[in-house]
Amino acid sequence: MIQDVAGSTPELTDGVRHALEVSLRGCDELIPQDDWVKKLTRSEKTGVPLRIKLGLDPTAPDIHIGHTVVLNKMRQLQDLGHQVIFLIGDFTSLIGDPSGRNSTRPPLTPEQIKANAETYYRQASLVLDPTKTEIRYNSEWSLPLGSMGMIQLAAKYTVARMMERNDFHDRFKAGTPISVHEFLYPLMQGYDSVALKSDLELGGTDQKFNLLMGRHLQQEYGQEPQCILTMPLLEGLDGVEKMSKSKNNYIGITEDANTMFAKVLSISDTLMWRWYTLLSFKSLAEIEVLKKEVEGGRNPKDAKVMLAKEITARFHSVAAADAAEQDFINRSKGGIPDEIPELSLSGAPMGIGALLKQANLAPSSSEANRLIDGGGVRIDGGVVSDKGLKLAAGTFVVQVGKRKFARVTLS
């Protein structure tokens, strides 16, 4: 039962009910939900938007669509009229987030952080409305804190509570080193919530400890504690492991439209519905109608094409998504795309392995041989089976797999 501060049960308006439904869509946990309802009710009555924070450390130069699960939630809440804050952790990146780590994470250099941060917000703006987004860097308040302030902050949390954190507990039990500076990470992330006076902080399920730290520190500093909303980690193209560049099961949001479209189409019919919930901007009602149509006999590929076009259009354009669909149709029929890379190479006659490597169609000659063994290499439409093939001077359309093409002029 939801109760207000005085203990009575408030009457939820349609607006608050809708906002709560939007908040809960696809989320793993909303803590505490009652407090979030109170904040939504107060915001509706006063007209003062809530402050909603998402912090990302620029640990890599590019974002993949797994990262956009929390960005999508931010956009949904932004569209309700609340103030979203995109926080770039340029200070916390110097420490290194120990979340989910079984060893000390090497901190980034200031130069790496600056280079990565330059692309982060530009990429996030493909999801968020940049005209309504507050962008902040946590070095703004973390650097002025100084050594005295850091000691005072550290006094607000105990080592025993810090060791309740799963990754610290497991590493300590296994005798794996834990550096003292790693204890500073959750403290500094929590202090971000104090500095920004956030009402709600978003993050992945692996960030729950850090998000709860923000609630604790806000209370320590006499603020109303934020609520926290965790979003699940998106499964990658394989439908098993979480999306990760290291596992090569990802879609980068800067990938070309044709590749992005084709990768979405490659996911399983089951995974498609989870991606719809977490990545699509269609309403849950629209998705449910589509799901019932598929259960009633409609080809699930129709639904997958709609999802692929929506995601591709978000990061490129509607026209690019339409062109990507046509490109996919052409390739599925064995056709060659209208636009493929063209390059000139010298050294004829050239071995097929060397050609694939020099044309950037394979990372190495050994990988090229593996692709040939698997029947994944074509020259002018014909499958290459001879790893010893040497190509004379001329122009050839070289294809690797379903998506890689190049028009190579060899001299």
Automatic annotation (TrEMBL):
It catalyses: tRNA(Tyr) + L-tyrosine + ATP = L-tyrosyl-tRNA(Tyr) + AMP + diphosphate + H(+). Its EC number is 6.1.1.1. GO terms for molecular function: tyrosine-tRNA ligase activity. Residues 350-411 form the RNA-binding S4 domain. It is found in: Cytoplasm. Catalyzes the attachment of tyrosine to tRNA(Tyr) in a two-step reaction: tyrosine is first activated by ATP to form Tyr-AMP and then transferred to the acceptor end of tRNA(Tyr). Keywords: Aminoacyl-tRNA synthetase, ATP-binding, Cytoplasm, Ligase, Nucleotide-binding, Protein biosynthesis, RNA-binding. A motif ('HIGH' region) lies at residues 58-67. The keyword RNA-binding applies. It holds the Pfam family S4. ATP binds at residue 245. Belongs to the class-I aminoacyl-tRNA synthetase family. TyrS type 2 subfamily. Homodimer. It comes from Hydrogenophaga bisanensis. A motif ('KMSKS' region) lies at residues 242-246. This is Tyrosine--tRNA ligase.
